[in-house]
Amino acid sequence: MTTGPRATERDDLRRGPVVWAGGASHVGTKNPPNQDALAVAATNTAAHHSAIAAVSDGVSTSPRSELASQIAVDAATDSLIDALTRHPTANDPDDLCLAMRMAVLTAQDEIVTQAGNDIDGYACTLVLSLFHRGLIIVANVGDSRAYWFGDGGTNMILTTDDSMAQLSISLGTPREIAEASAQAHAITKWLGPSSPGLDPTVSAFRVAESGWLMVCTDGLWNYASDADALRHVFNHLPVSADASAEKLSVALVDWANEQGGHDNISVGLIRIEEEDLRIAPARARQETPSPAPPNSTEAPPSRAQAVEPDPYDTPPQPELPL
């Protein structure tokens, strides 16, 4: 498994394997050490672009949550890279959803193994995103999120939080009220030995326009939860129009710190252009699957320039034209 960054580097971490995919993580102003973790990997071939971005937020009440979060992003990303190495031309949404699900379960297994008898010491969230052959696949456990910011003005939260706030929202409470409640950030699912049964939410999306795929921890979205509000922040960052994904991520982290930086902050960004969408399959679905035969003929990607997935399956869900 990939070794994570040193603790001092982690307090102000930046990742940019390619111009169009990158991220940043920062300890914030109030909560050292940085219990968030970040991983970004991408390929940049003439045939197509693929990328992975993952962030994890260590549960503050768990004494080794910073270890759990690092294991989570490393194990999940490595699992996906391995799947994409073995099946680089996979483009069925069912197959890719299963690969994502297996990546999250692999992360859980790694955390449990590392924890040993320390049942309560390791706990974290995870949001894992993949752009591959015209499809966006996201998986999440806890309240770290994925967003879509379309160039045509379509802005969406792609994940559903596993939290008390989300339970309240599902019962009809307005988001701004639910997320301001005392128990808003109490999560109902997490990775770690004390998890009551891990069932990640996995979704596939086919987008019809260029835009940005973003993953982040609540250290960012706490200050602009709504997709339109966060897109407004994104559009007014003090960076050049052609700024890299890494620089944009750093600017988002800086903005969150300017709002108070009351939590650790992590952001991963993947830029998707219209030409990257032309090989999208005709359907997009959501949740559980079954392996397909390998068909790899390409050399495996390295972690610093990663990606290409494993066939798997998941029950049908309506397409979401973003």
Notes on the structure:
The chain has 322 residues and is of the alpha+beta class. The chain has a single domain, classed as PPM-type phosphatase domain (Phosphatase 2c, domain 1), CATH 3.60.40. Helices cover 27% and strands 23% of the residues. It has helices spanning 7-10, 65-86, 93-115, 164-170, 175-178, 218-221, 227-235, 245-258; strands spanning 12-18, 21-26, 36-44, 49-57, 126-132, 135-141, 145-150, 155-157, 201-205, 211-216, 265-272. The strands form two sheets. Strands 1-2-11-10-7-8 form a six-stranded antiparallel β-sheet. Strands 3-4-5-6-9 form a five-stranded antiparallel β-sheet, with helices on one face. Strand 3 (36-44) and strand 4 form a beta hairpin. Helix 2 (65-86) runs antiparallel to helix 3 (93-115). The longest helix has 23 residues, at 93-115. The radius of gyration is 18 Å and the shape is globular. The two termini are 35 Å apart. This is Serine/threonine-protein phosphatase. Residues 279-322 are annotated as: Disordered. InterPro entries: PPM-type-like_dom_sf (IPR036457), PPM-type_phosphatase-like_dom (IPR001932).
Short descriptors:
322 residues, alpha+beta, Phosphatase 2c, domain 1, 6-stranded antiparallel sheet, 5-stranded antiparallel sheet, disordered C terminus, PPM-type_phosphatase-like_dom, PPM-type-like_dom_sf, Serine/threonine-protein phosphatase
* CATH homology superfamily: PPM-type phosphatase domain
Count of domain modules: 1
Please report which band the strand proportion falls in: under 5%, 5-15%, 15-25%, 25-35%, 35-45% or over 45%: 15-25%
Quickly give the CATH architecture. Answer: 4-Layer Sandwich
Which structural class matches the secondary elements? Answer: alpha+beta
Cα-atom Rg, whole angstroms? 18 Å
> Could you say which overall geometry the principal axes of the C-alpha atoms support?
globular
